[in-house]
Amino acid sequence: MSRAMPELQRKAVADPPRLRVIESDAPALSIVIPVYNESASLPLLREALEAVLDPLAMSYEIILVDDGSHDESWSAIAAWHAADPHVRALRFARNFGKEAALSAGLFHSRGAGVVLMDSDLQHPPEIIPQFIEKWREGYDMVYAVRTSREGDSALRRGATRAFYRLFGKIAEVDLPPGAGDFRLLDRKVVDILNRMPERLRFMKGLYAWAGCRHVGVPYSPPPRRHGTSAMSLRRLTGFGLDGIVAFSRVPLAISGWIGAAVALLALVFGAYLTLRTLIVGVDVPGYASIMVGIMLLGGVQLLALGVLGAYVGRIYEEIKERPLYVVSETLSASSRSETAETGAREASSSA
Ligand code: UDP
Ligand code: MG
Q1: Which residue intervals of 137-232 are DSSP H helices?
Q2: Which residues contact residue 106 at a Cβ distance below 8 angstroms, ignoring those fewer than 6 apart?
Q3: Would you state the pLDDT for residue 350?
Q4: What distance in angstroms lies between residue 37's CA and the mean position of ligand 1's atoms?
């Protein structure tokens, strides 16, 4: 097995992914961009993307996923689509969240490589050529690694750091520190992601789960130019919980261990009380120890129930097997009609 590896890797370098034919009219590169209330950023994004993509001399498509924006984003997208044949777009019937938007973009992408990036210009397109260079060297996944988090508040920075430290300790996958969704995925990784049936999609964990050859490229994210981040601390907390529940069973095990420890303590205390009663006689006062015991046990039981609830609630989400998102409108590439397979993952609300 280990002797076969160098051979495989040489093959990957000798056979650059962009030469692989996926579909006769498939582009070499797809750029997937989730959009939520970004009408002010879209013209700037378009300019910045064109400046980078046009000189590349590579066929490409841009897939814009409007995640139920309330502003003028969809008309800006439609105008971009009308002016540029590279653009395809999906519109969600309501806000389903960035992870759903990314999943939809990946599902509809056709490129031999797929770049995922935000629409708020915090993911500078100037890095895309570096992604492509590494991809051509044979890496299946190239991600941008933040070298600073200056734009974030101290609270958010601290919470993020604590979350990743905890996740690193208890989760079954390793997340590269500082890596976000800004990345390039080879088609084979995209195919793996597209086959994942789960509804709660903690994308960073899913990329890592695929376990392909990966490398990071450093970058320093500029602050948002327009609007504010849609990721409130509350939303981030829920997102972090989703990630932990999806990739770790340690919290479930911990309540078991705490239960065992408390039971052991109770046994020892019981033995001590029995001995003391035999030697010194009956001792009536004991209110404090009883109260402490009841409160501690009550607290531990509720905590354990809460942990259990976090898992059960997510199992419930999964077994409902609702689609991940509902598409209300699509704008296809001008040359071909859209032939989206609508499987279990996708629903359409257009006639
Ligand atoms: N986004 C989305 N759906 C949402 C929230 C955000 O598609 O419900 C998009 C948003 O338009 C942007 C990207 O996800 O392109 C990152 O969002 P944001 O800048 O709010 O998050 P942050 O950069 O602060 O993590
Ligand atoms: Mg942002």
Answers
A1: 154-170, 187-195, 203-210
A2: 32, 114, 116, 185, 190, 193, 194
A3: 63
A4: 9
Q: Counting atoms of ligand 1 from 1, which one is nearest the CA of 117?
A: 15
Neighbours of 193 (CB within 10 A): 19
Distance between CA atoms of residues 142 and 133, nearest Å: 10
Distance 166 CA to ligand 1 centre (A): 24
* CA nearest neighbour of 92 among 112, 77, 109, 113: 77
Measured CA to CA, the distance from residue 137 to residue 131 in angstroms comes to 10
Two tokens, residue 229: 């981040």
In the structure, which protein residues have their CB atom closer than 6 angstroms to any atom of ligand 1? 34-36, 38, 67, 95, 97-98, 101, 118-120, 122, 229-231
Q: Ligand 1, residues 32, 231, 237: which to mutate, most atoms within 8 A of Cβ?
A: 231
Strand positions, DSSP E, the chain: 29-35, 60-66, 87-92, 113-116, 141-146, 179-186, 214-219, 325-331, 346-348
Q: How far apart are CA 185 and CA 113, in angstroms?
A: 6
Tell me the pLDDT tens digit for each residue of 27-86. Answer: 999 999 999 999 999 999 999 999 999 999 899 999 999 999 999 999 999 999 999 999
* Cα distance between the two ends of the chain: 52
190, amino acid identity: V
Question: Residue written as tokens 């009308």?
Answer: 82
Q: How far apart are CA 19 and CA 113, in angstroms?
A: 11
Distance 67 CA to ligand 1 centre (A): 9
CA of 115 to the centre of ligand 1 (A): 16
Task: Name the nearest CA neighbour of 77 among 31, 120, 35, 122.
Answer: 35
Q: What is the pLDDT of residues 291-301, one digit of tens each?
A: 778 888 888 88
Quick one: tokens of 95?
């806000």
Q: Which of 113, 108, 111, 103 is nearest to 67 (CA)?
A: 103
Low-confidence ranges of the chain (pLDDT < 70): 1-24, 283, 334-344, 350-351
Q: What are the φ and ψ backbone dihedral angles of 334, each rounded to 5 degrees?
A: -60, -30
